[in-house]
Amino acid sequence: MTEAQPRELMRLVFGGMAAQVIGTLTRLEIADAIGDGGATSAELGAAHDIPAQQMHRLLRAAAGLGLLAEHEGGRFDLTPQGALLRKDAPVSLHAFARMFTDPIMLGAWPRLEQSLRTGKTSFEDVYGASFFDHLAKVPEMSALFNASMSQATSGVAATLPAAYDFGKFTTLADIGGGDGTLLSAVLKANPDLRGLLFDSEAGAAQAPETLGELTRRCEIRTGDFFESVPAGADAYLLKSILHDWSDEQCAVILGHCRKVLPENGRVLIVEPVLPELVPADGPGGVYLSDLNMLVNVGGRERTRTDFENLCESAGLRVTDVIRLPPQTGFSVIEAVTPADRA
Ligand SMILES: C[S@@+](CC[C@H](N)C(=O)[O-])C[C@H]1O[C@@H](n2cnc3c(N)ncnc32)[C@H](O)[C@@H]1O
After folding, report:
1. Overall pTM surpassing 0.90 (yes/no)
2. Which end of the chain has fewer CB atoms surrounding its CB within 10 Å, N or C?
3. pLDDT tens-digit profile of 35-68?
4. Counting beta carbons within 10 angstroms of the beta carbon of residue 212, is it exposed (0 to 12), middle (13 to 18) or buried (19 or more)?
């Protein structure tokens, strides 16, 4: 057993405050204002009507978190980590940082204990509607959520096309495909493949812009995957969908996919696959995501056995689990109808 490190535990306890610093930096777009040339507390304060002294305190806190570097005269530069908060960074986490530090994401977290006791989301108790229904009522937050998902998906989008042979399919449907970031990447890598993006109206609102000229070979359809999913594809991709829902709800979504799956068709679930035991040295974020799913949407992260059971409950069989590069934290779980497997 390693030695106890009180300061490390204190750093974790301060995590909620760190999140507020990051949230404030991104809302004020401080990283963009600092840019390549750096900026002073006085300049940044003046731009936001915040006294320089107070702005200085925010910037020092960000420097303490490793996001900024402080120089003489109250001047600050971005560190590589802080540069990820720029909107125009090649790999930006601006929208992700804003969304996941917003009260919409954090407002139900003080009720974690309640959710642990009931096994149910607490979001509705705080906001009076389910997470996705609430988002749909606030278009700017919905757009921010979609952008945050796009940013969170970029690692998978960069690696999935090389990790799985999509060339064997005619049409790939991305169910709950959001703004189309992932489908765009797969379509770009497979010029003969057609796409079908399916999401709610709010979820797909930014898809035409992201897909751009790919809309020539990608249809966008809106609807509710608890009612049905569109037929016509030979592969059905579900990335970060099942973790939003309970086992019973997942069985409904997967059941709709199975209903429209042609012979030799595939369901491709792209999610983290939890190891049976928490690794001593692995990244722990996925377990926080698991609790986030519980508190906000009533879903969960799952092990391979969980996915096998889910698929079985919908009349599907898992045929393969392909790990994407470890930095993504994601795997592809391939499933077929049992007849195809024999
Ligand atoms: C966690 S996001 C994942 C988005 C995308 N697949 C990704 O990984 O970046 C979940 C998606 O499911 C969509 N969604 C939620 N409820 C839905 C429903 N009932 N019918 C269709 N789509 C839904 C949301 O709009 C959102 O785009």
Report:
1. yes
2. N
3. 999 999 999 999 999 999 999 999 999 999 999 9
4. exposed
